[in-house]
Amino acid sequence: MTADMEEVEVVVAHSERVTLRIGGVFLKIDADQARVDIEVEAMARAPIPTPEILWRKPPVLALSALPGRALGRLGTPSMAPASAWTAAGAAVRKLHDASLPPWRSSRFDELASRLDAECRWLVSSGTLPADLVVRNRRVAEAVFRPWNPVFIHGDLQVTHVFVDSDGVTGVLDWSEAGQGDALYDLAILTLGHPERLDDVVAGYRTDVDLAVIRGWWSLRSLMAIRWLTEHGFDPFVPGYEVDVLRSLM
Q1: May I ask the CATH architecture of the domain 67-247?
Q2: pTM
C-alpha cells in the first residue's frame, strides 16, 4: 500500500449488513433497503447532528465521518467527561421533543412474545442458568406499562453518539428510529454504564423511573444474546450483556 492510499477499516460485519470506513467516508452495505429508507428519512427529520449523506446507490449508503469520538464503548469505562454525558442527555431530550415521525420503531413489534421466545431459548440451549433468566425476565416486566410515543433513535448505543469535549457532534445508525418509548433510548445509552445515568438525566431534565430503565437493560440484554452469538459476537465478554444481566440480580 502506498503512503497516500487510505486503509479500509471494517467497522461492523455480519450477515445483515457491513459498514466500512475509508478515510472520512463510511460505506454502509445493507440488503434491506426498507431499513436504509428509514435511516435516511430519520436523519432528515432529526433535530440533532447526524452524518452528511454523501450519496446513495443501493445497496450502498455513503456517509461522512463525524468529528470527535464515540461517547464510550460497552465493556470499557468511558473516558468522556460527565459534561459530555450530560450533553448527550440534552440531545436525546431534543430528539424526544421533536415532531413524531409517521412510522413506529420496529423495536416494539410483538415485544412480549419475542422476549418469551428468547428466554426459552436461553434456558433450553444451556446458554444461561435458568435462575438468571427468570429473575431478569421479572425485572424486564417493568417496561410493559403505558407510555406516550416520542421520536426515538431506537439503537442509541454509546458507540453511536459522538462527542468533542463536552458537546455532541453527531449520532449514527438511525435504521431503528421511529415512534417509541423515551426510556428505551435512555436505557440503551447507559447500558453497561449505569454510573452515567445521573449525568444523562441531568441533561435530559426530567426524572426517570429507574425500575423501567433497569427493565429495558434486562430486556435488551436477554433479547440480544442469541443474535450476538449467531452473528459472531461474544456477549460473555466482561461488561457486556451477560454481565449486565448478572448486575441486575
Answers
A1: Alpha-Beta Complex (3.90)
A2: 0.94
